């Protein structure tokens, strides 16, 4: 499996993987990825695909520009793996790769909404431990952050790229 940046030729495959991974929820994750691609918060270097040896795209992850109290941060998601390839390390490889790429770009912090047992393996922890406030208070422990080497104590309200606000 190869983890690489998304190319324009991958868009249809990414949509298909995302639809399959999230059971094609209308107005859901595939719609969100399309909207994020057109948003000012889109960061092409942080939209990664997992390519099987056959050349088939089997997974996708994206980080987009977000803020913590107006300072730059990243929002991770969606992360999607085709159901035929789940539980084989594809999602883990994508998360490791996007965190490494974000760190190499001197990003300070990545936040996400997800399962603590899964994302804790990658160093994510409840955002409240760093005084980062989720956009929705009820998210509680599911809203998590991962600091990177450029983290300098950013704290305060987190805001995702604008398309997240239209979910």
Give a written overview of the molecule.
This protein has 167 residues and is an alpha+beta fold. The protein has one domain: Aminopeptidase, CATH 3.40.630.30. Helices cover 23% and strands 30% of the residues. The protein has four helices and nine strands, in the order E-H-H-E-E-E-H-E-H-E-E-E-E. It has helices spanning 11-21, 29-37, 90-104, 116-119; strands spanning 2-5, 47-51, 57-68, 71-81, 109-113, 125-126, 132-133, 143-147, 156-159. Helix 1 runs antiparallel to helix 2.
Number of domains: 1
**Count of helical regions:** 4
Fraction of residues in helix: 10-25%
Return the structural class. Answer: alpha+beta
Name of the CATH class: Alpha Beta
Largest sheet: 9 strands, mixed
Radius of gyration over C-alpha positions, nearest whole angstrom: 15 Å
Identify the CATH homologous superfamily. Gcn5-related N-acetyltransferase (GNAT)
* DSSP strand tally: 9
Level-2 CATH architecture: 3-Layer(aba) Sandwich
Shape, principal axes of CA atoms: globular
